[in-house]
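Fold this complex.
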Amino acid sequence: MSPTAFFQQLVNGLTLGGMYALVALGYTMVYGIIQLINFAHGEVFMVGAFLGLLALSFAAQLGLEGVAFTLCLAFLVSMVLTSLVGMAIEHVAYRPLRQSPRITLLLSAVGMSIFLQNLVMLIRSRDLQPFPRIITGGVNIQGVILDYIQILIAVASLVLMLALDLFVNRTRLGQAMRAIAQDMEAAQMMGIDISHVIRLTFMVGSGLAAAGGIMSGLYYGGIKFDMGFIVGIKAFSAAVLGGIGSIRGAMLGGFVLGLCETLLVAFLSAAGVTEAFAYKDVIAFAILILVLILKPSGLMGERIVEKV
Amino acid sequence: MRRYFVLGLCFLVGGFFCACQRGAQEKVLTLGAVVPLSGPAAAPGNEMNNAVLLAVDEWNAANKMGGYRIALESKDDASDPKQAVSAAHALMSDSQVVAVVAHLNSGCFLPASKIYHDAGVVAMSGATTNPQITLQGFPEIFRICTTDLVQGELTAPFIQQLGLKRIAIIHDKTQYGQGLAEVVRDAGPRSGSEILSFDGIDIGDKDFRALLTKIKDAHPDVIYFGGMYDEAGLLVKQMRDLGMQQQFISDDGAFGQDFIDAGGDGTEGAIVSMVGAPLTDLKKAEDFMRKYEQRFGVKIQNYGPYAYDVANILLTAISSVIEQKGVPDKKALIEEARKTEYDGVIGHTSFDEHGDTKNKVITFYRVEKGKFTPVKTVSMNK
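Structure:
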């Protein structure tokens, strides 16, 4: 592998990882707080992308100009609306089942995922929707191409993750979240409004997924009703890899998975593994299994003490 | 509110009785259609279904089916082999189904063809191009499009004629995409090309930059992709993003507006092959496309004309069976279909001993200003 190819793969991997990480955060936050794998989260990512497209085309119709302005607007509108969607999902599909066994919640999540996917397919279209390519071009550093959109994805996802980290660790609401994650009953006894905090968790997670959805649309140039499925699986794996329940773990897991799929596969291919690219998911998931065997709680997960 | 409800109920019950009475007088035969109405290939699948609907309505309006009314029963295979098999079973359990307009995806038709064979029902496809399908020895199975063998064999010399030597091949690991890519891989060296790499990707995946970065490092002249439009579009876009200006060549799975939608400006100059001669060369095709656009409000993109011809070939054969026997006899239909000599929207169709079309023509199109422009038509006809 030439040095140019190495750095190009690094860029590819980090961009992919940034998007995985943003979606993985939603999984890990919800799991941390109510031990639910929110299978509808991949669909929330998709809904976010569609709402972003809607906002962008609306802005174009109104004749709004300026790439930065319309983009910020699209992010804002989509993140706010999607967090409301997340809130609605929690209210309809999970809240009534909070006292039920986990498996019931899980089924409800799968149902919600199917519902959302088909809803968007019926409302919009089955076809791929072209996403406005408002950010084009890039810089060429000695043959390594760094698209502006890749820079945007890297910067935006880092900023959002930093903001989340500060929110969870430095604010009262974040403290409440962490308290519930540790022990819901005790937190309730301390006067924390559980329902309120859970709702907020869903909103924040959904908002981040929406940002990821728009970035995906901008990056790949198109969105489709079933786009959330694969991203959902990958992001969920990233969350598990990093240690589900751990926020910093989800971020790390996202980047590790992104780099596994690109850089590691490229190394294997250069080392003579035939068809390495055809089996990149196999390789990425083999790494996941390996990590979980060696460290069952994930890269940054803490050992959970059995509650008696 | 209540009054409207009662009124509605009356209409419903009334309509039901009318339908029953009509059913008693009228003889009905059913034409089946199994195409992807949902899933990744829903766009061409719906186009095919609409084209079949158009043909059926025309036949019903003309009333030339010996007193029979033709009903269309459409099933969704969602491009999924499992669903294709269950759709085929469901259709074959209905004894009214005389013939089937079959599948868009080779991966679906291959397993389902056995079910049509077991039921003794003619199944004819306008879009499945995997060579294996007609080589199973099932007399009920036909298709009017040329196979990947033809497409691949003709693509390799075409690439060579463009003056391009070093080919990097990508495929989507499906029976269709990989099968076609393998033919190009094997035929390439025979026309003097060098195959640099042969890699698979996953359908539904969106990020192919890692693979493309590796390919870029090998400095190919041309990138050939065997697969469908979404992945083809994403590939060509990401190639251009990575600064790869090489010629991109793909197949009939990428022939359609969806490819340009997915790939954007990057598709400019890309070449795709499509079975048959350019439709603009054929008078009948123009007529069909106008009718289609009038009825459905959208333009024909890819396999609609093939589905239309399949439906017409089947219905023509059924009508001559009815003429001879008085009933739509399924066994006689197999023989009748084999004798087909039909001049349709896509040109002349007749079948060889396997049930494949004898009209082995493909055309290469280049994307120019967001439109497919015919570049060259090549043929294997003897």
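Chain B touches chain A through 35 residues (CB under 8 Å).
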